[in-house]
Every structure is written in C-alpha cells, then in structure tokens.
C-alpha cells in the first residue's frame, strides 16, 4: 500500500511502481531516517500528539528496527515499499499499530529526505576526514623515511631539478590538507537542519525547529522552507570536494605509474599490488593506480549528473531529486575507496635509490645552479641563462655531466667561473640551496615535517 492511496481509485501500474521506487538506492539512509524520526517523535510530545510513554515506545521500536535491519539489507530490499521512509513507516505500524501512524503527523517526505541526506553526508564526511588524515599519516611516514632519497623532479615530464622523495610526499600532504579543509567547509552547510519545513511552505504545527535541529546533532535550522526542501547544494559541494580530491589522487597515480614505468623505473610496486598479463609473461602492471586514475571519471560523472539534475529545476521539490542519491553515493563511495587504496599503494612501494639518484643527476638538472652561480658572480640572469644553455650544449656534445667539464671549458664561456663551481653543481648543493620557505632543502623539509607532525598529532583519528 502506498502512503498516498486515499485520493486514488486505481492501483499503480506495475511498471510505474517499479520505476517510481527508490528503495534499492535509498535503503542506505535507514540510520538517518531513524535518527530524524526519533527526533521528530520527541517534538511531537511538545505539541501534545504523543505522550512521553508513547514516544518512548516509538523510540525503542525504531531502535530495534535499526538493530535488526541495518545489517540485513536483503530483507529491506525484498519489500515492495516505495522508499526507505515508507518502508520504515510500514515496519513501525506493523510492530506498534495505530500509534506508529501518529509519528507522521505534520511531517513531509520532502523535508525528511532533505534532512536524511544531510545526516548521511555528515556521517560520510567524518569517514572521509578520517581517511584523508590516515593517508596524510602514511605520506608523512614515507617522507620521514626518505628525507635523503633523491629523485628527479619533472616539469613537462622532462627532468627539471632534483628533489627528494620526502619532498614529493609533502606535496601530496598539502593537497590532501586542502581536501580536508574543503570537507570541513562543506560541513558548515551540512549543519543546518531542514526538518520542520513541511512539504514546501513551513509547518502549521507550533514546533521549535532549533530544538529539533539540536536533537539530531545539527547546529541550527535552515531558514526558508521553500529553499530547504529543494536545496541540494550540499551534494554539489560534497561531490566537488570529492572531484578535486580525486584529481589529486589521480595525479598521484599518474606520478607513480610513470615513476614505475620501464622508462623512469626508479620506483617498484610490490607484486602484491600489481597484476600480470594473460599473454605477455614479463608484464607487471600498475592496475591499482590505473584504477584510481580511471575511477576519477565516475566521481566527475556524479558531479556533472547532479549539476545537470538541478539545472533549471523549478522550486521546490520535484521527483527528479530522487535521482540525486545514486550520484551522491557513487561519488562519495569511490572517493572513500580510492583514499584507502592510495594508502595501500604507498605502503607497498620500493624506491631504487641509486637509480633515482642517477636519473636526478642526469638530464642537466643542475643547469639552473650554473645560471645562478653566474648571476652571483655578477652576470645578469638572462645572460647567465644563455651562457649556461651554451655550456649544456657543450656537455651534451661531449656526452658529459656539467660537473665533468674542466674549468678551462667553463672559463671559455665565462671567465668569471672559478673552481668553486664544482661544489655548486653537486646534487646535494642543488637541494641545499633551496632553503627559502617551501624549498627542498633539508632544513625546510624538516620544518614542514615538524609542522605536519604537530598538526596530525593534535587531530584525533
Ligand atoms: N524517495 C523520495 C526522494 O528520494 C522521497 C521524497 C518523496 N517526496 C515526494 N513528494 N514524492 O526524493
């Protein structure tokens, strides 16, 4: 039986009924629907619809339903209820009869679903925050282990300047920190409760919406009911935070796919996280990273879908909104899983330090130091850049590193060069010179590590 049968003379067409039902997606809101229903039952005491005793019975019954069904999804899915709200209503009435029907006094599914979605997003945000912090800790751990591990740093995928693996890890900790702050930002909007808005124009019952909001753990209630029942901005916010973060995870994947490729080959993924080819016996493929990179598209798809779903949608509630959940769930589930998998990857890599160092030394990645050296000696940087470029060409023609050229050769290009140039051109000096805030020097890396350690120490996980 549908919730709205009174006005109708015919039963729903079987195909329409199936088409209209959302239970197979929104069953995941059971916990949230029960939480908001319990809060609502408490408000019903204030307006003399329920006695304290009746409310207690409703509350214990709802909790027992949660206990029985939260891990028993198949039973929920076997029902032919339209959605999780009607399923819960049927269950409650089956258990406590007429009293169960009273819970639905003055409450619309429009406000109910908006409230439940926010509750779900709050729960999921907390899970995501923990996962981000966990991943930051794994990066931090790797960074601490690899402060002296030199790897090539790239621009345009050409070797540019040497960096350390610790420094690379720190870059991802920064990105993840922005992701974390973005989630915390979204949480501000998640903290306003739509319950008590009625179907569209507010409720005729004399209820305290702020009290109701606090009962569910929100910090306040929303303002305009028309907006509240149709607002899904918070889903867009969640999915855009997810999309930006997935972009970070996908760049992480791409970096490691390249670093572990036959071409760069200075990082190796453990056998336990790679797979082989059915034809080529020699292959060891980074599927895990390719999947993270690939799954990013699903999250972008979810974000685009919700944006398109809402575009041009007239106020207030329209059934189109029923489609919002699958996008929200898909996007957030992928994000959640990929955050976890990036940690698995990081814990299962091996860095071939000698090869990494060799690659960092090659590619004339110390040419900037040469130009800087000339600039220190008084040459304008533009000229210094030009001269250093000429010296690089000379070294290429002799198949030598810059630091293998003899002093006379240097002097031919610029008489100001002295023997101290060789000290400037070492990998270690390239790193140590970058000692302003945010640079790759040991001191700067150590500062960053200390700050991050301190921050992560104070965040509970
Ligand atoms: N299953 C619906 C949804 O997800 C619940 C709200 C139904 N409201 C309505 N007026 N039909 O949007």
From TrEMBL:
Transmembrane segments: none annotated. It holds the Pfam family ASL_C2. GO terms for cellular component: cytosol. InterPro entries: Arg_succ_lyase_C (IPR029419), Argininosuccinate_lyase (IPR009049), Fumarase/histidase_N (IPR024083), Fumarate_lyase_CS (IPR020557), Fumarate_lyase_fam (IPR000362), Fumarate_lyase_N (IPR022761), L-Aspartase-like (IPR008948). GO terms for molecular function: argininosuccinate lyase activity. It catalyses: 2-(N(omega)-L-arginino)succinate = fumarate + L-arginine. It is found in: Cytoplasm. Its EC number is 4.3.2.1. Keywords: Amino-acid biosynthesis, Arginine biosynthesis, Cytoplasm, Lyase. The keyword Cytoplasm applies. Belongs to the lyase 1 family. Argininosuccinate lyase subfamily. In the N-terminal section; belongs to the lyase 1 family. Argininosuccinate lyase subfamily. This is Argininosuccinate lyase. It comes from Buchnera aphidicola. The gene is argH.
